[in-house]
Amino acid sequence: xxxxxxxxNSFGTMCSYGMGRYVAEFLTGAFGAIVFKFYETxxxxxxxxxxxxxxxxxVWNAINxxxxxxITSKPTPLSKRLGRRFPWILLGTVACALSFILIFSxxxxxxxxxxxxxxxxxxxxxxxxxxxxxxxxEVNYQSIFPDKFRSQAERTRTAGISTVIGVLGIACxxxxxxxxxxxxxxxxxxxxxLVIAGIAIVASILLVPGVREDKQMIDRFMKSVKEEETxxxxxxxxxxFTYKNFVxxxxxxxxxxxxxxxxxxxxxxxxxxxxxxxxxDTTMIFAGMLIGALISVPMWTAIAKKIQSNQKMLVIxxxxxxxxxxxxxxxSSYTGxxxxxxxxxxxxxxxxxxxxxxxxxxIDEIVVKEKKRTDGIFLGFRAFFGRLSYASQAxxxxxxxxxxxxxxxxxxxxSLLGIHLHMGLVPTIFVFCGIIVFxxxxxxxxxxxxxxxxxxxxxxx
Length: 461
Known about the structure:
Elements: H1 11-42, H2 47-71, H3 79-82, H4 86-103, H5 116-148, H6 152-175, H7 188-211, H8 215-227, H9 233-240, H10 244-274, H11 283-307, H12 310-325, H13 334-370, H14 375-404, H15 413-441, H16 446-459
Helix pairs in contact: 1-6, 1-7, 1-10, 2-5, 2-14, 4-5, 4-7, 5-14, 6-11, 6-13, 10-14, 10-15, 11-13, 12-13, 12-15, 13-16, 14-15
């Protein structure tokens, strides 16, 4: 019989926590799939300007995410009653969803071809505003996981539930927006943005029970506030990069996100130019990914019971993603893309399943060594490297589109080859770069993970 102490939280609480993955991936999927293409092909902003806006957004992330993680780790007037994370999550989710609408609300009077500067500034301001609000809730949401779900069994179960819900989120982020916009109809994207915001707000309400901090969590935090000296932001930032396993994880995460962003952002280019049709036709391709990811969860869960290492499982699932990214360089049919995306989804779903647990293992190691929970800033760096992938995607598209003459003739053989490259070959390269770096740097073993958990219990952290 399983030890009941392993499961402090109910199944309902775990499902509710998983809704955060839904919100995060729903918004991320929608953002990644349509924002760059919207500005380049619907508004008419040159790919170089769109890439520069995304790079500025990434620089903003360099300051925004770690700083928010540092600031929100400190007590507020609401901390004693509601906890340090919950108020930020509640505020951030709703505000972030509403800000998403602004990204597509470029005034009709703005003509990007005659005067690109106003459109460029609109893109920069709105995506940076959206990201700042996204970071407020997402960094705190991720930070709750290692504190709220403390046993390996509870983390595995919660991660499994969250993966299924999160995969539905990213699939909805890909599938739902095209149902409300049309290629070539700029104003239809605002309607799509309104629908996306509405769904995100409803999902945020369902998230509340899963991120509410209980008395034990609040008491632990308030005790740590009294006992610990406040460490400066830059001191914590420097220290973050002294932890080798943390650096290994965030670099793998960056390359994984870069691969995923390139591939998913390419799908609407494939639908519009390689396989001409309606925007809703891409639903079949994304459905393949969803089915593969969902099927993979029980399979990977069974394998993980034998391997007993989140770190090793990340490598195995990433290799599978890399293998099935490459064929998309050559495929030219809806059926081919759908089947291959389904196979790619097997690795994608597994990577998602083990990512929260692997990060929690890394955070546990840091907390044991620091003798305090300053995990917010570390989760802030994770968020930064995740969003840095938007820049790598934008730069990739800019370079390939410039070389292939996409702006001159998006349907030329060279342009179509370019789309195939950022759909298949480039994601493959990104994934295997991440695997190589992670294998060389990561030293965390299952025995060390268990030792850290026992030490955390003794430290009451």
